[in-house]
Structures are given as structure tokens and as C-alpha cells.
Amino acid sequence: MSNADPIELEKFSQLAHRWWDQNSEFKPLHEINPLRLDYINRLAQLPGKSVLDVGCGGGILSESMAGIGAHVTGIDLGDKALQVAKLHLLESGKQVTYRKIAVEELAAEQPASFDVVTCMEMLEHVPDPQSVIRACSQLVKPGGHVFFSTLNRNPKSYLFAVIGAEYLLNLLPRGTHDYAKFIKPSELAQFSRNAGLNTLDLTGMSYNPISKVYLLGKDTDVNYIVACQRD
């Protein structure tokens, strides 16, 4: 069972050693992480909750959720990223369980096991995002929260997320994103409904190139976060 693109895995594997370098290609992830953490915590009250971070990479979000008292499991299919995540725990002293396993496989193994499931910046990198969404729904307990973040698909998002971020501002390595894999909020809402999830909130994330500050708000044209709850 594999819903992964080998090219995407290799792309992030080559950068894995730089996950925790806040001036590296992962600088945007470090800068948006406090915003994402606050948003998730505000809606799901993370302390004491059992949380699954799908596509955890080097563990930036996983560690921050553990840092405020959540019991976190992070899963990914990238060996090098997981090695980096595990090594960083030695430095940070945080408690996170990391596993190399596909989300669909874990859903079959541990259905309805988590209070909260997060899947951030991953859907646009897999061949079948609907499969990931179904698995996330299967993994969360009834009444639990699921959070997705991804990129909208429209001319503005292509201009900002691909041309701007990758070629003009050099915020991300060139080739990071495939515009054809971007997902409109209406599509994500439909995928979520089909998986038994109710959409609670849709929030946009924008970047001001002048102030170099990221903000959460109503502008969902480029990056956005969706909060869902299982029936």
C-alpha cells in the first residue's frame, strides 16, 4: 500500500539534514509554525490530547505540539527526515513517537485512536490526496479534530507560491510545488465530506514580502488551513 511519489520523497530526502536550520529552505516552515500551532491549539485544546502528525518530516510541528503537552506520534515515509526528527529529540528533550508508515496502513492498524490528526503541507505532494483524507478520518476518534493545510489552485496561487516563492523571492527551492496538484478549498471540503468529516473553519495564510511576516486571515487564495471534525 503506497500513496507516495518517489520523486517527492527523494526531493525532501536530499534536504533532510537542513530541517532544523532556521535559515535553510525550511525557514518558511519555522516561521509559520507558531501560527499553525496556535490555530490548532485554539480549536482542539492540545494539552493532554493524543495527536497524530501525518507527513511530519523533521518534526517541527510534532515537537511544538508535544511542547505544550500533547502526546504526539509523527509518521512519514522519508527515512532521512525521520532520522533527523529522532536525533533532534536528543537536543530538545521533547517526547514524540516517530514511525515510518503510510497513513493508510496506520488507519488499518489503529482506527479511531487519536483525538487530533494534523496533515500539513502534504496533500499537494501525494498522488491520491483523497486517500490520505479518508485515512485521517479513520484515524481520529468520533468527535475528534482533523486539520489540513495546503495550497489553493488559481492564477494568484501560481504567481505567489510558485513564481514568487520559488523563483523571485527564493523562499523555497525551485520545483518544490507542482501547480497541478494544488487543491481548491471547495474540493478539499468535498473530499472531507466524503470521508465523514465536517468542516468547522477555513482560514487563509498570507505572506507580506515587504515586512516578511506571515499572517492568518481571510485570504485563502494561496495557502489555507481547514479544520474538520469527525461525525
Structure, briefly:
The chain is 39% helix and 26% strand. With 231 residues, it is α/β, with parallel strands linked by helices.
Structure report:
With 231 residues, this protein is α/β, with parallel strands linked by helices. The chain has a single domain (6-230), classed as 3-Layer(aba) Sandwich (Rossmann fold). The chain is 39% helix and 26% strand. Helix 2 crosses helix 3 (60-67), helix 5 packs parallel to helix 6 (129-139) and helix 6 (129-139) packs across helix 8. The longest helix has 18 residues, at 27-44. The two termini are 26 Å apart.
Largest beta-sheet details = 8 strands, mixed
Which homologous superfamily in CATH is the superfamily?
Vaccinia Virus protein VP39
Unreliable residue runs: none
N-to-C span: 26 Å
Percent strand: 25-35%
Number of helices: 8
- The total count of strands amounts to 8
Order of helices and strands: HHEHEHEHEHEHHEEE
